[in-house]
Amino acid sequence: MPDNDDVTAAVTRSGVVAVLRAPTADAFAAVADVLVEAGVTAIEVTLTSRGAVEALAGLCRRLPPHAVVGAGTVLTADQAKAAVDAGAAFLVSPVYDPDLIAGVRVPFYPGGLTPTEIFAAHRAGAPLVKLFPAATVGPRYLKDLHGPLPEVRIMPTGGIAVDDVAAWLTAGAVAVGLGGPLLGDAATGGSLPALADRARRAADAVAFARS
């Protein structure tokens, strides 16, 4: 996996972080293969999925060097340690906990919604702050945040549709987290070709917004 200084650059370069969440992680390897092939090269394995740590370790061994794999829904120090020991290049949490972020040796992207939460996470050293749940506020909210907080790098996540990726990036996001709207039912036995189509659309939206 990339060195710490390169991890956030790899996440930003992908433009989309695929959030893998399902009752079990059994299909995550097949799903990740499709995503990376389609151009979505940042993968977040959520720890709420049964077998997530083992799946994360497998993806770190399986995926090509240009892909970056992290762990999501990290809420405790024990979870953070297990994920990093399994090879996670970055960690993501829906909340900002200063005690949790302090001892982590890989990039940690904490969550926040209000300007106070987002700035506190940034001031604590987070290279990206996860705006969550993003769909409840919309791209205009992010644009308004960047007025007084232009230096904060934000990754909106939560309920974002594939067709909204370009709007978020245009509003100032450095990357966008996509979960259910991207995965559909692919992680529970659904269509991998349909997943590939959605992933290509998401990658194309990133290229469009940055052109």
Describe the SSE topology.
Layout: H1 4-14, E1 16-20, H2 28-38, E2 42-46, H3 52-62, E3 68-72, H4 77-85, E4 91-92, H5 98-102, E5 108-109, E6 111-112, H6 115-123, E7 129-131, H7 139-146, E8 154-156, H8 165-170, E9 176-178, H9 180-183, H10 192-210
Parallel strand pairs: 1-2, 1-9, 2-3, 4-5, 6-7, 7-8
Describe the structure.
There is one protein chain. With 211 residues, the chain is of the alpha/beta class. It has one domain (4-206): Aldolase class I (TIM Barrel, Alpha-Beta Barrel). It is 44% helix and 14% strand. It has a four-stranded parallel beta sheet. It has a three-stranded parallel beta sheet with strand order 6-7-8, with helices on one face. Strands 4-5 form a two-stranded parallel ribbon. Helix 6 links the parallel strand 6 and strand 7 (129-131). The mean pLDDT is 95.
* CATH fold name: TIM Barrel
Strand order of the largest sheet: 3-2-1-9
- Write down the Rg: 16 Å
3D shape: globular
The tally of strands reads 9
Reported for the largest beta sheet, the result is: 4 strands, parallel
Q: What is the number of independent domains?
A: 1
Brief digest:
By secondary structure, the protein is α/β, with parallel strands linked by helices. It has 10 helices and 9 strands.
